Amino acid sequence: MIKTALYPGTFDPITNGHYDIIARALNLFDRVIVAVADSHSKRPMFTLDERVSMANAAVGGLDNVEVIGFDNLTIELAKEHGADILIRGLRAVSDFEYELQLGYLNHSLDASVETVYLMPSLKHAFISSSIVRNLLSFNGKTDHLLPPEVEKIIRGMNSCTLP
Fold first, then answer.
1. 59-79 pLDDT, tens per residue?
2. Which of 10, 47, 122, 146 could form a disulfide with 39 if both were Cys (CB 3.0 to 4.6 A apart)?
3. How many CB atoms lie within 10 A of CB 71?
4. Is the pTM value of this prediction over 0.85?
5. What is the pLDDT of residue 162?
6. How many folded domains does the chain comprise?
7. What is the CATH number of the domain that holds 114?
């Protein structure tokens, strides 16, 4: 039986930390679906299509990874795609309380779907999309925080799309 894991997030933009978790999840699961949330409430810097495109570019060299966009409940999406594992990333203790609550909520909606928490490698532990967005807003250096394909896409965008 193929084990499919769903890795949901806003990925605004996808970072080296996200990539690290995806690559390591492939050591645990047969298939990983990177699910890019529409997340209107978070007011993302990049459109859903741009974020899906960046995620596809970032994981293009990995086998058994699919990228999709979504705007429904994560637990419903997992069932639609045959995923019985949700992957969540933990960078620091500060992430834990929120992620634990989310895991309990998803479990209350469907107890057959488990949540697995993965930490990025230590060298990526400080990276967050919000840090990257802040640097981008000042045209700061981000090439050490983003997959090269994502850096190229962002730097190739018309500067008026960046705040």
1. 999 999 999 999 999 999 999
2. 10
3. 11
4. yes
5. 52
6. 1
7. 3.40.50.620
What are the phi and psi torsion angles at 155 (to 5°)?
A: -70, -20
- Provide the terminal-to-terminal Cα distance of the chain, rounded to the nearest Å: 46
Q: Determine what percent of the chain is predicted with pLDDT higher than 70.
A: 96
Q: Which residues are catalytic?
A: 18, 42, 91, 129
Q: What percent of the chain has pLDDT over 90?
A: 83
Per-residue model confidence as pLDDT tens digits over 6-54? 999 999 999 999 999 999 999 999 999 999 999 888 899 999 999 999 9
Other C-beta atoms lying within 10 Å of the C-beta of residue 107: 15
The domain containing residue 120 runs over which residues?
4-161
Give the Cα separation of 118 and 25 in Å (integer).
8
Token output for 14 = 């996808």
Distance CA 11, CA 30 (A): 22
Long-range contacts of 40-44 (CB under 8 A, 24+ apart): 42/10, 42/12, 44/10, 44/12
| b/e per residue 28-40 (b: at least 16 CB within 10 A) | ebebbbbbbbebe
Element (H, E) at 96: helix 93-109
- Determine how many CB atoms are found less than 10 A away from the CB of residue 160: 6
